[in-house]
Automatic annotation (TrEMBL):
Gene3D superfamilies to which the protein is assigned, alphabetical: Peptide deformylase
Enzyme class: hydrolase
Entry's family note: Belongs to the polypeptide deformylase family.
Protein function: Removes the formyl group from the N-terminal Met of newly synthesized proteins. Requires at least a dipeptide for an efficient rate of reaction. N-terminal L-methionine is a prerequisite for activity but the enzyme has broad specificity at other positions.
Protein name: Peptide deformylase
Gene Ontology annotations of biological process type: translation
Catalytic activity line of the entry: N-terminal N-formyl-L-methionyl-[peptide] + H2O = N-terminal L-methionyl-[peptide] + formate
Cofactor note (record): Binds 1 Fe(2+) ion.
Classification via HAMAP family: Pep_deformylase (MF_00163)
Keyword Disulfide bond applies: no
Keywords, sorted A to Z: Hydrolase, Iron, Metal-binding, Protein biosynthesis
Annotated GO MF terms: metal ion binding; peptide deformylase activity
């Protein structure tokens, strides 16, 4: 399994490269997607992962399907599948990870808030970031199909955090109240 790189790795400070749409279904890109999901799924506390976080300077991120389950617990209100356009019949069922290739945020709400944030590539450091409450993103899925998705709350925060990764930005670059919180044993 691919290892998640940490904040000192230069790949996290690069502008990631776009993926040619014609290449999305190639073995190479599909392998990257599989490695990303494997790395993300191996982390109990991870909710999303950008390709640079496992060493690939590509404009791809994956959002964990677990954030859409009824069992997902977070200090903030958990998302529902309905909030992100998934049919009500799917709520509570195992949901696959969502893939965003060449994502572009097309709209951010003017209304912002300070939200708690961490990162799998900035292990055990947490802080607060000032993020838009709502975001709309356009991207391609793992089959090369273009889609647009709106989000609020945690998913809007994820869109912004992961897009920052693709632009060489880490949350600690603009967070406040940064502190270390080691895992409880």
């Amino acid at each position: 399994m691919k290892k998640i790189v940490q904040k000192e790795d230069k790949v996290l400070r690069q502008n990631a490269d776009e993926v040619r749409v014609a290449n999305i279904k190639t073995k190479k890109i599909q392998k990257v997607l599989k490695e990303m999901s494997g790395a993300l799924n191996s982390q109990d506390d991870g909710v999303a992962l950008a390709a640079p976080q496992i060493g690939y300077p590509l404009r791809i991120f994956v959002v964990s399907g677990k954030i859409f389950t009824k069992d997902f617990v977070r200090a903030e209100k958990a998302l529902t599948l309905e909030e992100v356009g998934v049919p009500a019949a799917s709520i509570g069922k195992k949901t696959k990870n969502l893939v965003f290739i060449n994502p572009k945020i097309s709209k951010l709400s003017r209304e912002k808030e300070w939200v708690p944030e961490g990162c799998l590539s900035v292990r055990w450091l947490y802080g607060r970031t000032f993020r838009s409450k709502k975001a709309t993103i356009a991207a391609y899925d793992e089959n090369g199909k273009k889609f647009t998705r709106g989000a609020s709350g945690l998913l809007a925060q994820i869109f912004q955090h992961e897009t920052d990764h693709l632009n060489g930005i880490l949350f600690i670059d603009h967070a406040k109240d940064i502190k270390e919180e080691l895992p409880r044993k």
